[in-house]
Amino acid sequence: MSLASATSNSLRLPSFLGQGPLLVVLIYGVLAITVIYPLLAVLIQSFSEAGALTTAKIAEVFSSPNIIEAVINTLIISVMTVLFASVVGVTLAWLIARSDMPFRRVFDPLNMIPFYLSSVVGALSWQVVAAPRSGLINSLLEPLFSEPPFNIYTVWGIALVLGLFYTPYVYLFTLGSLQSMDASLEDSARMSGASKFMTAIRITLPLSAPAILSACILVFVTAAGIFGVPLVLGVPGSVHTLSTLIYGAINEYPADFAKAAILSSALFLFTALFTVAQIWILRGRRFTTVTGKGYRPRRVDLGRWRWAAVGVNALYLLFVIGPFIALLLVSFQDAWTGAFSWSRMTLANYHKVIFVDAIAHRGLINSIFISTVGASIAVAICMLLALVIHRTRLPAREGIAPLAMVPVTVPGIVLGLGFLIALITTPLYGTLWIIMIAYIVHYLPTGLRNSESLVQSVSRELDESARMSGASWWRAMSRIVMPLVAPGMVSLWLLLFVTYIREVSSSMMLFTFGTETISIALIQIMEYEPYGVSGAFGVLQTVLVLACVAFIRQVSSPRQSNA
Amino acid sequence: MSRSVAVKVERLVMSFGTVQAVRGISFDVAPGSTVTLLGPSGCGKTTTLRCIAGLEVPTSGRVTVGDQVVCDPESGVFIEPERRNIGMVFQSYAIWPHMTVGGNVSFPLTISGVGKREAQERTRAVLDLVGLGELQQRSAADLSGGQQQRVALARALVHEPRVVLFDEPLSNLDANLRERMRSELQVLQARLGFTAIFVTHDQEEALSLSDHIVIMNRGLIEQSGTPQDIFKNPATAFTARFLGYSNVFPGRVAAVSNGGVEVDLGKGQRLAARWRSASPPRQGETCQLAFRADRVALDPSGQSAGNNAFPGVVETAAFLGTYFDYTVTAGALQVEAEGPVDHPVARGSQVNVAIPPEHCHAFAAGEEA
Known about the structure:
The complex is a heterodimer. Chain A is mostly helical. Helix content of chain A is 73%, strand content 1%. Chain A has two domains: 20-40 and 347-563, Orthogonal Bundle (MetI-like fold), CATH 1.10.3720.10; 66-291 and 298-341, MetI-like (MetI-like fold, Orthogonal Bundle). A two-stranded antiparallel ribbon of chain A has the order 1-2. In chain A, strand 1 and strand 2 form a beta hairpin. The radius of gyration of chain A is 26 Å and the shape is globular. By secondary structure, chain B is an alpha+beta fold. Chain B has two domains: 7-232, Rossmann fold; 237-364, CATH 2.40.50.140. Chain B is built from eight helices and 21 strands. In chain B, the strands form four sheets. A six-stranded mixed sheet of chain B has the order 7-8-9-3-10-11, with helices on both faces. A five-stranded antiparallel sheet of chain B has the order 2-1-4-5-6, with helices on one face. The longest helix of chain B is centred in the middle third of the chain and has 18 residues, at 175-192. Chain A binds chain B through residues 1-3, 6-7, 9-11, 13-14, 17, 393, 459, 461-462, 464-473, 475, 479-480, 483-484, and chain B through 1, 53-55, 57, 64, 67-70, 72, 75-83, 85-88, 90-92, 94, 96-98, 107-108, 111-112, 152, 155-156, 159, 165.
């Protein structure tokens, strides 16, 4: 047998090596257009006026006093939100994972509820409870104080609602870290003479610090860019943040794109700075506290404090669920006077949002369409990226993940503005597709991170043995890897579906008449309808999402994937 | 290309970044034979196996399977693993948990388009061969370690590959099962006549399974040959140590005689030894001296310190069932020795330590100390 014939026989290149580089070019191209270009569009817009390069507009924008106030408000809200979420989140996580607090199993899923809910609905329900005049608590307590004691229309009110809604992020990260920690690390502290509480403070928490810190930065960046809650709770009391000012600049007539872009650039600079700080602080700080040993960390005996712990957790849940119950009551009242009345019971509000109100109807249909189709496309894209990154040897594959992670630093409203500037002249503008693409890009980091851990959870040898059995790359992926991660893909799909349903920041920039999403419909209904109607719509939205979450927990093992 | 070579590896180099895992190794595997790549973790043995499989693309070098060049980066040849017709048993067995036992085993047949009926028959036949005939319908998720091993083997054999690769196939089994699987593998191979390449770090496994052993260290071949040959005549101190020579001492060549040397181990202790390195010994050069514990004779009478013997004191004595394990301090040396159970030597005894010169191996001091 001659060598020449053997060689020519094997020169037929395998399909994925032949087309692979093309695929990589395609991936980079799409990421450049969808991730980088909108950001660049915002930056360029900030520095140009009538086609010329200038910084004059920037100086003008930042000389206005209400901008400075908005920057300070944004900072206060972000810092207070992080403080609230981290103190409450870490405390609850420790109680659930490490103490003998009663009702742990009941509290654990309940503590995650805000994670799945729209914070706009949360803001609405806090309005019902603590608006200066009409709030439920205020009307109850007013006789005692002679004036309403609580005002939710302040930076503190905004920070409270955001803190409540972002506590689950810190809770989830900390819980994961505590549950995977090697018990012997704590045991040896006890054997060295440390008390149980000393052990918790000196050993357990520092070991979880990287996880807690990355959750805190995530919450900080999200709170800085959040839009729905400041709009609902800030505008009535003239409390402005950078995000509401950006929205205002687009919404005034004529729209001031330059101002919106400058404020967005400032906001992006702010969040990017903190993300870079996080990467810098966490470099090399990945404690390997996970061991293969199956034994669980021992729980701390709280003694008499057990019931105090129950009280703390119950109080958090009261703050989360209580206002929703109030909202539920309001949604069944034909008019709201600050107190519930049996004689005012009605289903008219639900009838209105389901059958009469066109915008509510549209919002519901649009959101379900965007979320269903969008989540399907996103899961497909993220799985493909994860497989290319972890299951091929294609050139430049290492650069894909960092590029796809960029949206983590970009607040939704900035991303939305970028898409608006970049695509306003294209036929995509004014369609549901532009909103869907913005969602997919905005939550690409969530999708990719989950897909990567799914793919990595499948041992390489499983698909390598398929290759050795004669299967091509694509067959090994579709016959072996994908079926094995299918449950994880379903729960990722549902996670993205829920996330898209409750999203408001980027769609606020991109919707037009006819393409309102459910959250935008809610905000618009709140502007011209009484509490009862918007309450009914908020309740409807919440029930829809919670039904999906219940479904998640049914089809997949709990907490397989998270943001 | 000669028909008498099943797998030919030539000047294989594999770099990961700046690290060279395999540094230009060559060896041949005869058809129907069993070759074992033996070495410590990180020596490049698994990388070499994966290059043969096609799961890694080597930096340079050539791999030929049968008469087909499957991989030659210099001339742009790379055959995908699925088109090499090689079976492989992975360390983790890589049984697909979402399929039945039968589904796992028939997968290679389904992929290559074998008819349903024929696939069924061949799957059944190969499952019978590995003794799992009745488990065909069982879900692969609930198999014991030994059963998984057999399923992996059946799957690797079902499409009758010309070569079967085994990556540490027995390391996840307990000692009893390991021994049984070892002999079953030999029986199977004799019946089916496939060529086998094993990778292991277990010298006992390598010695018992192979026709030919390739000892690897730091990406290079340290020595290769038949098990008996390698075991009797280690060519380097590394090989000696790896094959269980528990006494390896640094020394200096004191005298060179015909075919042998005298090694000075310090404090005036000298041992006559065979010179095993390729380079001729030079008087005064540093060297390594190795001998096995079971070649050491301990004489409690303490007399007759003749050739290749010196006095010592027994420091530890451990009963290990079939023999006693001793540590003897003799001058500057700590010598490991073995003795029969019928004539134990007490701790603290003065003994005469003797090692026949033909069992003492001396090597030039290489990079491996």
